[in-house]
TrEMBL record:
Residues 12-21, 29-38 have a biased composition (Pro residues). Residues 1-11 have a biased composition (Low complexity). InterPro entries: DUF485. Keywords: Membrane, Transmembrane, Transmembrane helix. It comes from the Bacteria. Pfam families: DUF485 (PF04341). This is DUF485 domain-containing protein. The keyword Ribosomal protein does not apply. Residues 1-51 are annotated as: Disordered. The keyword Lipid metabolism does not apply. The chain crosses the membrane at residues 69-90, 102-120.
Length: 149
């Protein structure tokens, strides 16, 4: 499991203008005036990049992708090692004339590694890349909005 040490800072509104005094300075014993209506704050339609959950979603999708591909290759290799250590009779038995099971399973490690690579690319295209593209487009829009200010 990975940990992202970058802090998430909340959006900070620009500083407000100084408020006029609540009473007339000529007569300080008078009751305070009614407070003025606060100016409505205009919230951005979407928080700036890094302040929303899209990056967390991208990190978890990428984490899931790494785990899936790694466990595919390492799981098969671990199975091969366990069979070699604890089932030597099975590994020395022959599948066909002169081809032991252990050698067949060792040769199958190459296609399983290719399968892990294909699985990694498939999950990248299907799950991770669309999220990254969405974040990239949103950051471009945020940059254009900041430049227009």
């Amino acid at each position: 499991m990975s940990y992202d040490p970058s802090p998430s800072y909340p959006y900070r509104y620009p500083p407000q203008q100084p408020q006029p005094p609540q009473h007339d300075m000529t007569y300080p014993w008078q009751p305070p005036l009614d407070p003025p209506e606060p100016a409505p704050r205009r919230r951005p339609p979407r928080a700036p990049l890094g302040h929303h959950s899209d990056l967390r979603i991208l990190r978890s999708a990428y984490r899931w992708q790494r785990r899936t591909a790694s466990l595919t290759a390492l799981g098969y290799f671990t199975l091969f090692l366990l069979l070699s250590a604890f089932a030597p009779a099975f590994m020395t038995s022959t599948v066909t004339d002169g081809l032991p099971t252990g050698l067949l399973l060792a040769v199958l490690q190459i296609p399983v590694t290719w399968l892990a690579i294909v699985l990694y690319e498939h999950t990248a295209r299907r799950y991770v890349d669309p999220i990254a593209d969405r974040i990239r487009k949103q950051s471009e829009l945020d940059a254009k909005r900041e430049a227009a200010r």
